[in-house]
Amino acid sequence: MKTLIINIKELLQVRNTNITKVSGKDMAHLPILNNAWLLIIDDLIADFGTMDTCPAQDDCEVIDASGRTVLPTWCDSHTHLVYAGNRVQEFVDRINGLSYEEIFNRGGGILNSAKKLNETSEDDIYEQSKQRLEEVMKQGTGAVEIKSGYGLTVEGELKMLRVIQRLKKEYPVAIKATFLGAHAFPAEYKENHSGYIDLIVNEMLPKIAEEKLADYIDAFLETGYFSIDETKRIMEAGKKYGLQAKIHVNQFTAISGIEACVKYDALSVDHLEVVTDEDIKALQNSNTMPVALPTCSFFISIPYTPARKMIEAGLPLALATDFNPGTTPSGNMNLVVATACIKMKMTPEEAINAATINGAYAMGISDTHGSITKGKKANIIITQPVTSYYQLPYAFGSNLIETVFIEGKAI
Ligand code: NIG
Ligand code: FE
Fold first, then answer.
1. N or C: which end of the chain has fewer CB within 10 A?
2. pLDDT of 24-81, one tens digit each?
3. Cα(85) to centroid of ligand 1, in Å?
4. What lines the ligand 1 site, CB under 6 Å?
5. How far is the CA of 19 from the centre of ligand 2 (A)?
6. What's the pLDDT tens digit per position in 199-257?
7. Domains (ranges, CATH) in the chain?
8. d(Cα 45, Cα 48) in Å, to the nearest integer?
């Protein structure tokens, strides 16, 4: 099947050479073709160019994108979109003055979601989760990483990962699964941390590996959750099964966790609301992608990742949603991009690079996703008529997306 999109006002993120990420000053550059065409054959981007070189239109479906921007779909490299129920009561409790930490210490937070998850059937979790996946696809997400971490029991974690596999099978979006058994210590292991880590290492991981349920491994490296040494044990164990680390770190406190993650060759370090100069040094010249989650900062009123400082230090940066029931009940990447521009002072070019090519890198798929490149997946967004792509973050909260193509098909 052939689809030819013509008269594209601006075709964004055109990369002829297959770069895997952009860093520092290069993030300010977003390659654009004005007055362009794009040819899709089956599930792939076959070719593109400016309208003066437009190919014959006889054997393909033609879409006229006059006045519209075309860009690659968002790559959301950090979500927890498989979960049961919601946490609306905690949302209201926080409005009334309780902190995220206080709620957790009362047995709420992650443990509240874990209780619900373990009480819900796999089919029911699948039905709830697929609605969220369908919603984010319509919002322009064409690739998504999904974590476990609300099971915290062998059965619960396996159940979540099986739901992720089912979503992978049923939907055309690229999905990467991350095992996050080390999300929080269950109440019965509060005083026996090594016992819970033994359970992760000796029982959960072998089963997950046997069923090939995960691509990556994660831990919540944070004061009151998993220490550096505990996280190292998790990363080490993951490595034995070929699971590279993507770690939650520096959300509330900076305890030199980033350095440890870089040493273990983590693919990404995520959150980074609190970042020290030492953290930045550790990331310089590494292969680890820092990932910011600005709508998490927005929702629970914590600092925003210091993007300017990091980009000026030459680092790359990716943007993701963190879609989860506690700290970010939204999977809308358009809002993430807008929030990054408005609150983190990222330019639209930097934010779009961070949400496409760098997001793809942070989930290990930048050879197939994240840019308009011949041979990559035909995952594209066609906007409504706009003045320019600046309007995407400017009109925050508006839906400016007209059509989303995933693997060559309009959804
Ligand atoms: O990324 N910080 C750790 N995990 C999630 C929140 C989990 C929850 O509250 O359910 C996050 O923000
Ligand atoms: Fe998260």
1. N
2. 999 999 999 999 999 999 999 999 999 999 998 889 999 999 999 999 999 999 999 9
3. 15
4. 109-110, 113, 220, 248, 251, 296, 322, 324-327
5. 27
6. 999 999 999 999 999 999 999 999 999 999 999 999 999 999 999 999 999 999 999 99
7. 2-72+373-410 (2.30.40.10), 75-361 (3.20.20.140)
8. 8
